[in-house]
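Handout, section B. The chain below has 162 residues.
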Amino acid sequence: MLPFWFGLGQQAARQRFVKLRLSDITVGRSIHPRCVVTQQKTGRPVPFEITSACRDSLHAWLEKRVLRTDDWVFPSRIHRGEHLTTRQYGRLVDDLFAMVGIEPSNYGTQSMLRTRVALIYKNPGNLCPCQLLLGHSKLESTVRYLGVDIDDAITLSEDMEI
């Protein structure tokens, strides 16, 4: 279930992190607290943070495996030498939800990403960090994605002191 918690903790869409290589998140034997992935659709870099709890789990998990820096962090369970696919990741999420008694069809990785970013938006009321985390090039895309009322967004921006 490590891929699930890793993805949830990063506010990252699953497409972004299933393709991570060990060299993307480590230097020597330590795991970076902050990393960057490239958004598949736009090719733009998207920063993310690996929480300390997630770093501890990753470190313990990686200690059990003998890896080279070019190995996948989350290898496929089926195809040797390949990374975990987004479909395999989705199935892991469904299995986890079912194990804890949550109906998997009511939730998905995208809704978890949206919820996390919406919570980040609500706290300071700033769309810019959300735009960055989502990898959107236009603020309008972030507003649409979050379902923010444009009048609310304008009011928030007017209330900000510069």
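Note. The first strand starts at residue 26 and ends at 27. Compare this with the example in section A.
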